[in-house]
Amino acid sequence: MRPSAGFLLATLLLCPITGVAYAVDSAGVVTAVSGEVYGQLADEPQRELAVNAKVFVGDSISTAERSNVELEFSDQTRLALGPGSRISLTRYRYAPDAAQSVFETRIAQGVFRFFSGLIAKHRPQAVTIALPVATIGIRGTHVLGEVTATSAVVALLEPEESGAAAAIEVSNQYGSVVLDQPNYETVIPDANSPPSPPRRVQIQRIDNLLRSIHTLRRITIPRPSLQR
Fold first, then answer.
1. pTM
2. Beta bridge pairs of residue 178
3. pLDDT level of residue 174 (50, 70, 90 thresholds)
4. CA pair distance 37, 49, nearest whole angstrom
5. Which contiguous run of DSSP H or E holds residue 210?
6. Among 22, 102, 133, 199, which is disulfide-ready with 188 (CB 3.0 to 4.6 Å)?
7. Using an 8 Å Cβ cutoff, are 196 and 186 in contact?
8. pLDDT at 43
9. Contact, 139 vs 120, CB < 8 A?
10. Spatial separation of the C-alpha atoms in residues 77 and 74, rounded to whole Å
11. The domain at 68-212 falls in which architecture?
12. ∠ CA 188-174-166, rounded to 5°
C-alpha cells in the first residue's frame, strides 16, 4: 500500500534536511563586520558572514587579516574579534530556567573583547572561555584578551553598567589568579607557566588591541596615579 500524502509530509517535517538542520541551534547574530569573516560547521561548507547572519552552536568562526566582527547572542552577551582570530562556539543554551543555561567558547588565537550577558548574571559558573594555555571563568564582566597558540594576555576592564559585577578567574594546571579590579591584567607566557599575579594594564598595548576591534565603541583606560 502506498503511503498517504499526509504521512509523507509528516515524515519530511520530522526528518532534518541536510544544510538547514542546524538552524534550530542558532545562538546569535552578527551585528557588525569589517573585511572577510567566515563561519563553518562540521561537515558543512564554509560560509562568509555578513551583518544579520546567524551563528550556531558548533560554529568555527574566523577573521581574515584586517578584518573583525561583533557577535551578539540571545542572552545579550557580546563578543568582538580582531584580525586573524579563530574561535569555536562549543556550547550555548539560554533558557528561562537559569540552571539549564550555558555559554562555552574556545578562542584559538587572536584578539577578543567580551561583554557578559544574562547567563553570566544569573549563573556565572556556566560561562567559560577556553584558551590554548588557560581557561577564563566569568562572573559577569568586560574582558579584553590577546591569544596565541602558546601564550595569552587577559585584562579585566571597566563594566558597562555602574556597580555591575567585575571579576574573572584565569586558571590552568599550574595555578590560577582572580582579577577583581578593573584595568588589571594577567599574563600566561607559555603553556608550562601559571597565570602571573595581577598587574596594572599596559596602556599602550590595551589601546592597540582596542584599535584592532573597532566594531565596538572605544573606552578610556584610566592612567595610573603618580601618588604613592
1. 0.82
2. 169
3. very high
4. 5
5. helix 203-212
6. 133
7. yes
8. 86
9. yes
10. 7
11. Sandwich (2.60)
12. 60
